[in-house]
Structure formats: C-alpha cells, structure tokens
C-alpha cells in the first residue's frame, strides 16, 4: 500500500505554523482563493470515499467524528475492518440505510492555497436534476471512473451534462487503481476510450489521472505505485486551475440590479452582484432594457468607496443622472451592452415529475428578472443514455423528469440576456410552475430568434378606449368554467340574451363551436387543451380591444390556463364565473351522452372521469346549480357585471 | 482591462451572502433575521449591515429567548441591535415560562419548548414569511444537504426528500399558502471562515469566546459556567461546587447546556489557534445532536427546529 504521508503534510502543513506563529498563518490563509467543483460517477465508483478522503487528509474531521466514523464503519460500513470514508459524507438517515447518496451534498475542505466547496452528486440516472444543480455553480468537474469497469453509460451522461452546463475544467479520475494492480495499460486504454468519446461531444480538453481514493494514491502528491504517471496529483491540479470569477473579469461589465438602495432623498444606489467585467467611478454605463446611459459616480460599500469592483463582488453603484432603474434591470458597460429579446432557442433540463406542457405559462427567472414565459413543443430531446451516442437527438412532444431538450421559449416582455456560452448569469434561467411554485426546469438561452426583433407592434389610431366609448360600455370577459354538462352554455346564453336586451354589444365564444373552426386541428390531450384555451384567450382579448363584452363557455379545467387568460387582459376585465355543479349531478344530467361514453372507455381524457378539473379558488362569481336556477344565476351575473349588486 | 483582481475565499463568501440577503428582501413580504447572539449570528448581522449600507437592514432581529442564556449574551444582543438601527424582537414561549421549563429538570423538553416551539410561535405571531438563519453546512451531516432557501410547511416541518433544486445563484422564493422559508446566507462558510472573517472585520462577539477566570461547576461529567448561581441553586436544589477556572466557550447556547473548555486563549488569534489545533468538533459541547443517535438533527429539523 502506498503511503503518501510526507506529501500530505506538505500540502496541509498547518500544525507547526499554527502553533508557532498564528498571525503568520492567518495572514497566509486570508489570501486563499476558492474553487467549487463537483464529483460525479456511477454508483460505487467511489465518490463518497474520495470526498471522505479529501476531508480526512485536510483534517476537516475531528477526533470525535473519527471515533464515530470508526464505530459506524464496523456497524454499517462496506470496507470490512477498515475505515469507510463514504460514511462521512452520506448524510441523511434514509441514505445511510440504503447505502447510497440521493441528493446534492456540499462539503468543504481547504489546503494552504485554496478553500474548496465540493458538490457530491449522485450517480443514479433518475437524478440528473441533482447533477445539473451541483454542476451549475462548479468551476471544475471530477469524473470518476472505476478502473475495473472503464467508461460506462453513466460516465458519458455525466460528462455530457458537465459540458452542457459549461464547466471549463474536466478531470478524468481513474479510480480504484489499487484494484487493477496500478496497471498502466489499463489506465491508458480507459483514457484513450474516454478521449474519443469526449471529442465526440465537444469536450476539447480534460486532465486524466490514475488515483485511489481509498488508498490515497495521487491525491495529494505523486504516488510511488504509479511511477509511469508524471502529471499533477488531484489536489495539485485543483489548487492551480483558474476559477470562473477570475475569467469573468475579462468580459464586459454586467450587473443585474437586485435592489434599489434609497435610505433618504440624498442617496440612491443600485445594489447587485457583478456578473462580469469590472466597474470604476467615471465609467459610462447603460441601463437595460431602457438603453439610457449615465456615468458611475461611486462604488459604495460599508468599508468605504471602492476605486474598482470586479466580477464576483456585491456592491452598490451610484450614477450621475436620475434615470429610471429598478430590480430586473441590468447595468452594463455603455459601449457593449447585452441585448433584449422575447423569443429564444434554449436547452431545458426538466426537473419535475409533471411533464412540460407546451403552451402553458411558467414563471421564468433569469438574473433578477422574473417574467411569464411559454415553451413551444420541443424540437428534440438529447439522448444521454445511449451507450454509443450520448448527445444524439430524439423526436419528442414534451419533456419528462430528467429529460434534456431543445425548445423555443417566448416571454411576455423582452428580457435582457446573453447567450449562456458567454455568461451564466444572463444566460441561465429557471422555470417555476405558477400554481405549485416548484422549480420545474433549468434552462440555457442560446440565441434570440429573429422573429422577436422583426415583428413590431402596429400603433393604431382608433384606440381600444375609443371602441368602448362608441359602444357606451366597459369591455369585459365573462369566463364560464365548469364540468361538462354543468350548465355553462345554458347560463352564458341566458346572460348574453339579457345583455343584448339591455343594448350591450356582446359575443359568446362556445367551446363546441370554436372546435368546428378556429381550433378544429386540436384534440383533447393536455397540450391541446392548453392551446385551445390560449387561442380562445387571445381571441377574447382582441374582442375586448374592439370594445365587446365577451362570454366564453369552456370546461377550461386547468387553473394555470385560466390565470394565463386573466394575465392577458387589463385588470378587472376578466371575471371568472365558476358553474359549480358536482360531478354526480352533471353525470346524471349527461345532456350530450358524453359521460356514458367516457365511463365505457369510448372517450378518453374526459374531464372529471380520467382527466382532472382544477376548481377556481377565488372566482369572481360562483353559481351552485343545485341551489340556483339558470334564470336567477343569469340575472345575478348581469347585475354583477354592470355593477348593480355586490358579489355573493 | 487591468490585470485581474483575484478575490479571496472570504470576499467571495461575503459577496454570496450579501447577494442572498438582497434576494430575500426583494422577493419576500416580511423577512426577519434570527439572532442567537453567537458568533455565526454576529457574522450574519455584520453581513446584513454590509448588504444594505447605507440603509439599515430592512428587517427586524428576532431573538427566541429561553431565559437561560448567558448574561453577556443579553448585553451584546441589546448593544448590537441599537448599533445596527434594527428593531429587536424577543420572544419567550409563554407556556415554557409558566411551567418553569429548565434544562436540568426537563432535558430535551427544554430545547423543544423554548426553542422549537418558541420559534414557531414567534414566526406565526409576526407572520414572517422568510427567516434568515446562521446555520452552516459544515456543522452537521443533514445540513450539508439543505438548500440555501429551505422551505417549511405551514406546520414548520422540513421535507428533505422534496427540496427545490437550486441552480447558479437563482433562488426561487415563491411560496405556497402557509409556507415559509428559512434562508441560510452563510451555508457555505466553515467554522474557520467565520473566525477569520471576525478577525479581519473586527466583528463584535460575546466575550465568553475568550478565556477568562470564571466560576465553573461540573454536571454529568462536563464543565459548565455558573452564570447565575442563585438560579442554579433554586433549580438544582443544592449548591453546586464552584471552582474558578480559566475557561472559554466554543459555542454559545443556554449556560447550563453549553460545556466550557479550559483555555488560556485571550485574543482572537489565540482562539483561532486553539480551534485549529483542537481535535474535537464544534458541536460536541452541545447536547442536542446526540439524541436519537446519528440522525438527531435531521429528526429535530423535520419537527421544526431551526
């Protein structure tokens, strides 16, 4: 067994200096830099053991923890009588029982030169989201390979993901060399195999090294067991690679504004974390997306004003001019600002159990901007599991949990962005489900689509207010929602008749009717139902622009789409009318005989039977048809619309 | 472009913590900072003052008190609140107060009622939807896997299997009804980082971290400080044997639950020196992690302990 005690001491040479000259030690350690990296590999490639070893060697575990580790190793360890380093890092109780790592865990250790943050990410293929999460903040990835097994499907998958997320430094750590007798031929064959694969997916450079996390070979210094290897040890390499924040300083200045600091009338500063470049007083800057320019007067911190601030620092910037600037805006160097756009091609990593619904509106958060966004049906998914061709494309209609795909994204207003390859801060985003508030996807913007730049809004002389004034009414949408057979069409029809009799200009969009024309190309899958409602929402919006009172009668089962339509309209113009008829009542009525068909299986995706109905939580008007006649309900809705009576 | 400025690890950790705090202030309705008066809280408060300077931090400090803290902690708490210009809210669980819950007679129930229940009560009482906490991932195994924005159910429970992915430095602060967020801005700091930061920034900390001749007594095999002798006598029913010893504390909690260590470290570099050379981990002085075997903290957090 190799014993690299001597080198370990050099790298972690602390005790003597600490004991003799603590001030000198502190001085030295205050100038350390920080590197974040991830370790990835298949189950049993020895990730946890390697990290445990790094913590152990850098004395990041204490005597009492070591004692616990020794006793745990005997109880639940997998290394017989020896210390099972993996137990140091496998945290949650459930995992300790299963003996696997199931989530991203962050670990810390340091050498004389650097502090390290390690994201330990799992090897199971269903946990792509964890690996992508851990990789998103990493400067470097350590891809572990079991020397006995060589390049596996999981190796390819992890390498692809690390490359996708833009990690610039890849280390191929051929682990468990002790179990193949430190055989150079085995190592060389694995490296050659990996090199061919790496090239095929666009990884230009990687550093390979033969190690043993268990025995400690080539971890802190050269191992006598691998005299044929002349490259750096793992720690030596980790201590010297360039970190991303340093590289980011060479790029143009960008700072997303997080918060406007205004303690009194005399001070107005813009607070944020500098994403790239540097900033000094006197620099000309531009506020995006407005494009207004000004000059930096001060870079303010509690420790005094700075002459210069660089990528990676959190600062507060004051400008010479009183220009509009708030959270979500981006401060950038005046002569090379980023662009704004509202349509993009992007890569998405889907992270939720519920699949992507093309056409549904999600929140998109990029930098400090949060906007509403819809995703088109993906162009393809990327196959990262195929043993031969990780990175090959497959046709698809949606993205399921852990799927990676390329799709167009449209935002409801322009956002300031950069291609992800040029900057993670203005190119990386998350998608958030509007109802569950879960983070459902991570995405990377590649480029804006030309359409966004070329389609302009045509300003019209006869305004929407003029249309409404001529008709002497307030435009509105009465959105009837409820189960099939609940009475939506019946009541909507009565309401329209009453409004018409009162001289109001109305139009009723009926679910069945639009499916004969406008939406005859759509079926009843979730995606088609969403598109159905989106189109009806847009038509309803055009009609309100024309000054009409629009009535719509659609099952519209999903809350998210009803909220999407509400978002299309001016405040107060969308009135949700919930025709609340219990399923058994609607089914008993079964006016069109549809429930019978659905129950017998002739009709698929039928709301209430094998497709969900998400009832409104706070409808403007609720009608309980078991207690109120259609006539009375219609009367009440008209009163509410025209402001004649309070809502019940 | 000038030559690159290489940021140190402390500069980067500071920038990250400030970024996190500003995100919370921008996105939460009613944030609060939990302030335990320990060294991690001291650093967190200092970072908050940096994050919003020249404004005072735009949220109050909340101290969930057990009435059993060291006197020196109460003194520093009041001083720091005044200096930072922040409102100080102090909550004591009225039921624990009425029942006289104490660390000697009630063991684990003391922590549960004063701290776990007390915290829940205070968050509910003021309707805080985001609470900054000074927990670090290097403290304990289950913390290593906790997100920076960590969600709690309406009943303040934590579900480790159902955490939102956190990518880049994008934090999703959107809550469902009744949910609240615990935010840990110094998640990525280690104990050494904290000490170095205190040293470099002259962050005020409780003098108990430095060695001094103090009245001590032994209880269940550990050394404690007799911070309030009359009260100790009342609760113990006898007068413990008091010995003057040069001691300091590696971590601060309730004085009868926080073990003292014999030490001569009277300056910060000496404290750091001792910390680095020591061979027992920080939390060993605290009794809380040892309940329920290796999974102690995880179980407590599922129940709502911070």
**Low-confidence runs of at least 5 consecutive residues of chain B:** 286-295
Largest protein interface?
A-B, 87 and 72 residues
Strand order of the largest sheet of chain B: 3-2-1-4-6-5
Question: What characterizes the major β-sheet of chain A?
Answer: 7 strands, antiparallel
Integer average pLDDT of chain B: 86
Our estimate of the beta-strand percent of chain B is 5-15%
CATH architecture of the largest domain in chain A: 3-Layer(aba) Sandwich
Order of helices and strands of chain B: HEHEHEHHHEEEHEEHEEHH
What features would you highlight for this structure?
heterodimer; A: 648 residues; alpha/beta; Rossmann fold; Elongation Factor Tu (Ef-tu), domain 3; 4 domains; seven-stranded antiparallel β-sheet; six-stranded mixed β-sheet; 21 helices; B: 306 residues; 2 domains; four-stranded antiparallel β-sheet; 15% strand; globular
Description:
- The complex is a heterodimer of chains A (648) and B (306).
- Chain A has 21 helices and 28 strands.
- Chain A is of the alpha/beta class and 648 residues long.
- Chain A folds into 4 domains: 5-242, 3-Layer(aba) Sandwich (Rossmann fold); 247-333, Translation factors (Elongation Factor Tu (Ef-tu), domain 3); 339-454, Elongation Factor Tu (Ef-tu), domain 3 (Beta Barrel); 464-641, 3-Layer(aba) Sandwich (Rossmann fold), CATH 3.40.50.300.
- In chain A, helix 15 (488-501) crosses helix 21 and helix 17 runs parallel beside helix 18.
- The termini of chain A are far apart.
- By secondary structure, chain B is an alpha/beta fold.
- In chain B, helix 3 (71-84) links the parallel strand 2 and strand 3.
- At the A-B interface, helix 2, helix 3, helix 5, helix 7 and strand 2 of A face helix 1, helix 2, helix 7 and helix 9 of B.
In short:
The complex is a heterodimer of chains A (648) and B (306). Chain A is of the alpha/beta class. Chain A has 21 helices and 28 strands.
């Amino acid at each position: 067994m190799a014993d690299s005690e001597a080198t370990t001491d050099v790298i972690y040479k602390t005790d003597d200096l600490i004991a003799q000259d603590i001030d000198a030690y502190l001085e030295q350690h205050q100038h350390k830099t920080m590197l974040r990296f991830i370790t990835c590999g298949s189950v049993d490639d020895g990730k946890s053991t390697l990290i445990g070893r790094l913590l152990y060697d850098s004395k990041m575990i204490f005597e009492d923890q070591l004692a616990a580790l020794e006793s745990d190793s005997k109880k639940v360890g997998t290394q017989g009588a020896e210390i099972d380093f993996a137990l140091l890092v496998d945290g949650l109780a459930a995992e300790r029982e299963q003996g696997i790592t199931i989530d991203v865990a962050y670990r810390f250790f340091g050498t004389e030169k650097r502090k390290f943050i390690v994201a330990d990410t799992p090897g199971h293929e269903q946990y792509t989201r964890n690996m992508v999460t851990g990789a998103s903040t990493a400067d470097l990835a350590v891809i572990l390979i079991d020397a006995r097994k060589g390049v596996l499907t999981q190796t390819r998958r992890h390498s692809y993901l690390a490359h996708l997320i833009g990690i610039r430094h890849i280390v191929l750590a051929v682990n468990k060399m002790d179990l193949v007798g430190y055989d150079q031929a085995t190592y060389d064959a694995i490296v050659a195999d990996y090199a061919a694969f790496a090239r095929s997916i666009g990884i230009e450079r990687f550093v390979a090294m033969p190690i043993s996390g268990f025995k400690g070979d080539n971890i802190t210094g050269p191992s006598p067991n691998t005299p044929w290897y002349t490259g750096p040890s793992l720690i030596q390499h980790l201590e010297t690679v360039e970190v991303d924040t340093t590289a980011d300083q060479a790029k143009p200045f960008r700072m997303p504004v997080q918060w406007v600091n205004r303690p009194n009338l005399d001070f107005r500063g813009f607070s944020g974390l500098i994403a790239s470049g540097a900033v000094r007083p006197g620099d000309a800057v531009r506020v995006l997306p407005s494009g207004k320019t000004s000059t930096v007067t001060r870079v303010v911190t509690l420790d005094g004003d700075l002459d210069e601030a660089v990528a990676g620092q959190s600062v507060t910037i004051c400008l010479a001019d009183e220009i509009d600037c708030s959270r979500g805006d981006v401060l950038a160097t005046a002569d090379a600002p980023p662009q704004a756009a509202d349509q993009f091609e992007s890569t998405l990593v889907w992270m939720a159990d519920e699949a992507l619904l093309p056409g549904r509106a999600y929140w998109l958060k990029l930098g400090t901007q949060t906007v509403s966004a819809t995703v088109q049906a993906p162009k393809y998914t990327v196959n990262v599991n195929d043993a031969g061709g990780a990175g090959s494309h497959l046709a698809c209609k949606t993205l399921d949990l852990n799927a990676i795909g390329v799709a167009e994204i449209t935002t409801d207003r322009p956002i300031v962005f950069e291609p992800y390859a040029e900057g993670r801060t203005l190119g990386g985003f998350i998608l958030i489900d509007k109802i569950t508030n879960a983070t459902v996807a991570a995405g990377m913007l590649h480029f804006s689509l030309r359409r966004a730049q070329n389609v302009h809004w045509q300003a019209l002389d006869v305004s929407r207010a003029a249309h409404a004034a001529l008709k002497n009414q307030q435009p509105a949408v009465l959105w009837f929602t409820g189960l099939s057979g609940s009475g939506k069409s019946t009541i909507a029809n009565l309401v329209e008749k009453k409004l018409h009799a009162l001289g109001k200009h109305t139009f009723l969009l009926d679910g069945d009717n639009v499916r004969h024309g406008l939406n005859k190309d759509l079926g009843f899958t979730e995606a088609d139902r969403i598109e159905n409602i989106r189109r009806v929402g847009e038509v309803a919006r055009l009609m309100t622009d024309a000054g009409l009172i629009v009535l719509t009668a659609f099952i519209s089962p999903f809350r998210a789409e009803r909220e999407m339509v509400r978002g299309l309209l001016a405040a107060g113009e969308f009135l949700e009318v919930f025709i609340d008829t219990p399923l058994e009542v609607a089914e008993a009525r079964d006016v069109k005989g549809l429930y019978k068909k659905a129950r017998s299986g002739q009709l698929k995706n039928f709301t209430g039977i094998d497709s969900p109905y998400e009832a409104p939580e706070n409808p403007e008007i609720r009608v309980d048809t078991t207690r109120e006649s259609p006539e009375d309900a219609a009367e009440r809705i008209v009163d509410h619309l025209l402001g004649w009576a309070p809502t019940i | 472009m000038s030559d690159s400025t290489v940021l140190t690890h402390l500069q980067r950790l500071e920038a990250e913590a400030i970024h996190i705090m500003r995100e919370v202030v921008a996105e939460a309705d009613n944030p609060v900072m939990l302030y335990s008066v320990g060294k991690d809280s001291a650093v967190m408060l200092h970072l908050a003052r940096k994050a919003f300077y020249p404004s005072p931090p735009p949220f109050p400090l909340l101290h969930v008190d057990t009435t059993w803290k060291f006197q020196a902690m109460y003194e520093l708490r009041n001083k720091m609140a005044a200096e930072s210009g922040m409102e100080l809210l102090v909550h004591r669980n009225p039921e624990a107060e009425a029942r006289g819950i104490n660390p000697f007679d009630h063991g684990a129930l003391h922590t549960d009622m004063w701290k776990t229940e007390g915290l829940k009560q205070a968050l509910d009482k003021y309707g805080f939807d985001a609470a900054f906490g000074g927990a670090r991932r290097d403290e304990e195994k289950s913390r290593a896997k906790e997100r920076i924005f960590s969600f709690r159910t309406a009943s303040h429970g934590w579900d480790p299997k159902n955490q939102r992915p956190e990518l880049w430095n994008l934090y999703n602060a959107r809550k469902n009804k009744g949910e609240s967020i615990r935010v840990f801005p110094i998640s990525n700091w280690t104990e050494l980082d904290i000490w170095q930061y205190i040293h470099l920034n002259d962050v005020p900390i409780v003098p108990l971290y430095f060695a001094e001749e103090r009245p001590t007594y032994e209880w269940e095999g550990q050394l404690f400080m007799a911070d309030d002798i009359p009260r100790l006598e009342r609760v113990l029913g006898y007068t413990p044997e008091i010995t003057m010893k040069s001691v300091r504390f590696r971590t601060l909690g309730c004085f009868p639950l926080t073990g003292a260590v014999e030490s001569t470290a009277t300056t910060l570099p000496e404290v750091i020196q001792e910390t680095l050379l020591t061979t027992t981990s920080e939390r060993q002085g605290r009794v809380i992690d040892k309940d329920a075997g290796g999974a102690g903290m995880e179980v407590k957090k599922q129940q709502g302990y911070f």
